[in-house]
TrEMBL record:
It comes from the Eukaryota. The keyword Membrane applies. The chain crosses the membrane at residues 7-27, 47-67, 102-123, 143-166, 186-206, 218-240. This is Rhodopsin domain-containing protein. PANTHER family: INTEGRAL MEMBRANE PROTEIN-RELATED, PTH11-LIKE INTEGRAL MEMBRANE PROTEIN (AFU_ORTHOLOGUE AFUA_5G11245). It comes from Xylaria multiplex. GO terms for cellular component: membrane. Residues 27-286 form the Rhodopsin domain. It is a multi-pass membrane protein.
């Protein structure tokens, strides 16, 4: 049996959005270097977000490697199906046929939650920190700092929830422990998703009033619009994740968790892209300049002459009247070439 459709969807999402996030972060850091600007708190938070987003993706996709080292059991295609994207087979079937696979899946589910929360929180802190630099106003900055504190508090709640919802902690992956119990996991995950969505939406709309008053060139408006458009898209993914949580059956999480897994990858990776997008202009400009100069150089070599002189026929159509024109050197600006008298040159 090959990889399940649910698992394939998660793999596709991971292999599209993760490289985009890496490229966006690379352009951001290159832009800083081109501008000769030292990295600030918002840059380090973007780097941290990328690291933990990649770690989240790795936990989802590297199941076969970890399984082969942790459990002396044959790794069937079904085992790989289950772990990639946390979907592929019903939980009861996996527990009956390959209990080691199920145990590892549940065990890594806790660090996956924490990695996801760190990545998302780092994205929020990076964007809010950048807001405090871009936009003036003491009140606005205080609101940004307060939102940063709320984001950190949100992460702490996710961290504690991962370890406190089930007592003892081992009961998460070993349901045979006597007197073990889990407390409203579904409600906790739902409330966590709603809180994440509200914070993201607030971060998107927070600078709208200031942006509306800015007098900036059209190109910069496009960049700003793209940034907030992507922010709105991330909010939509957060909402879809909440909907997936509502339909997520924790008693059969290996089969019903594909949507949660996919959106859990989309949020932090696209969040990194969104956090880096406003600061990539110098690098993109440099790339365009290099591309343009390369095209111009090829054109010059193709159409140009090896000599600095060329015979040009005069416009009166008489081939007997030919003049020698000398090519101006490149270091002579065109603005310095003017007629010697005050009259206009004839067209």
């Amino acid at each position: 049996m090959g990889i399940s459709i649910q698992g394939a969807h998660v793999v596709i999402v991971a292999f599209i959005t993760t490289p985009l996030a890496i490229v966006a972060l690379g352009l951001r850091l290159w832009s800083r270097r081109l501008q000769k600007v030292a990295l600030g708190f918002n840059d380090y938070m973007a780097i941290q977000a990328m690291i933990f987003a990649a770690a989240t993706v790795s936990v989802v996709l590297a199941g076969k490697i970890f399984l082969s080292r942790a459990f002396p059991i044959p790794l069937t295609n079904r085992a790989l199906d289950v772990f990639i994207g946390a979907t592929g087979a019903h939980m009861a079937e996996i527990q009956a046929t390959e209990p080691g696979v199920f145990t590892l899946f549940i065990t890594l589910f806790i660090p996956a939650q924490i990695l996801w929360a760190v990545a998302n929180t780092s994205v929020k802190l990076s964007i809010l920190s950048l807001y405090t630099i871009l936009f003036p106003g003491q009140l606005f900055r205080r609101i940004c700092y307060a939102t940063m504190a709320i984001s950190v508090a949100y992460f702490i709640s996710v961290f504690l929830g991962a370890f406190l919802l089930c007592q003892p902690v081992q009961y998460n992956w070993n349901k045979t422990i006597p007197n073990g119990k889990c407390y409203n996991q579904g409600i906790a995950y739902l409330l966590s998703g709603i809180a994440n969505l509200l914070i993201d939406a607030f971060i998107v709309v927070l600078p709208m009033r200031k942006l509306y008053r800015l007098q900036v060139p059209f190109t910069k408006r496009i960049v700003i619009g793209a940034m907030f458009g992507l922010g709105a898209l991330i909010c939509i993914f957060s909402l879809l994740r909440i909907i997936s949580v509502l339909s997520w059956d924790l008693t059969d999480s290996t089969y019903t968790g594909s949507g949660v897994a996919a959106y859990s990858i989309l949020e932090p990776t696209l969040g990194v892209v969104n956090a880096c997008l406003p600061l990539t202009r110098p690098a993109l400009k440099k790339l365009l300049e290099n591309s343009s100069s390369g095209w111009a150089g090829k054109s010059l070599r193709y159409y140009g002459s090896s000599s600095t002189e060329a015979n040009v026929t005069s416009t009166n159509g008489n081939p007997d009247h030919q003049h020698q024109f000398r090519r101006l050197e490149d270091n002579i600006p065109l603005t310095d070439v003017r007629p010697t008298n005050s009259q206009h040159c004839p067209l």
